[in-house]
């Protein structure tokens, strides 16, 4: 087996997952804010699924579709009230069974 086959890129591995969207019921919500905290802004680089983005206005936006439920944003931003975090409802969210 070649080294390329052993070490897939993160994007290739994420492609193995499936995500069932719970339309209109995001399991993570971001609180309205004027300027994001350092931790919230950091999520635009730390979220492995790329759910957090920085808008032109400087505010941080969240699209929870594709969330891997890793909990990084929960640890960094939930206690401060910047986000509310729950697991998706049963049957929705990430499916890891493909790899
Ligand atoms: S739980 Fe992990 S994957 Fe999901 S939005 Fe937070 S940092 Fe991203």
Q: What is the CATH topology?
A: Alpha-Beta Plaits
Structural class of the helices, strands and pairings?
alpha+beta
Major sheet: arrangement of strands: 1-6
Please tell me the CATH architecture by its name: 2-Layer Sandwich
Count up the helices: 4
Shape: globular
Main β-sheet description? 2 strands, antiparallel
Strand content: 15-25%
Tally the structural domains.
1
Low-pLDDT sequence parts: none
Text of the CATH class: Alpha Beta
Q: How many strands? A: 6
Bound molecules: iron/sulfur cluster
- Please give the alpha-carbon distance between the first and last residues: 18 Å
Residue-averaged pLDDT = 90
What is the helix content? 10-25%
Order of helices and strands: HHEEHEEHEE
Please state the CA-atom Rg, rounded to the nearest Å: 15 Å
Family: To ferredoxins from P.putida and C.tartarivorum, ferredoxin I from A.vinelandii, ferredoxin II from D.desulfuricans.
Pfam families: Fer4_ETF_QO (PF05187)
Function: Could be a 3Fe-4S cluster-containing protein.
Protein name: Ferredoxin-like protein
In words, what does this structure look like?
- This protein is of the alpha+beta class and 99 residues long.
- It has a single domain, classed as 2-Layer Sandwich (Alpha-Beta Plaits).
- The protein contains four helices and six strands, in the order ααββαββαββ.
- A two-stranded antiparallel sheet has the order 1-6.
- β3 and β4 form a beta hairpin.
- The radius of gyration is 15 Å and the shape is globular.
- The protein binds iron/sulfur cluster.
- Residues 28, 47-49, 51, 64, 67-73 line the site of iron/sulfur cluster.
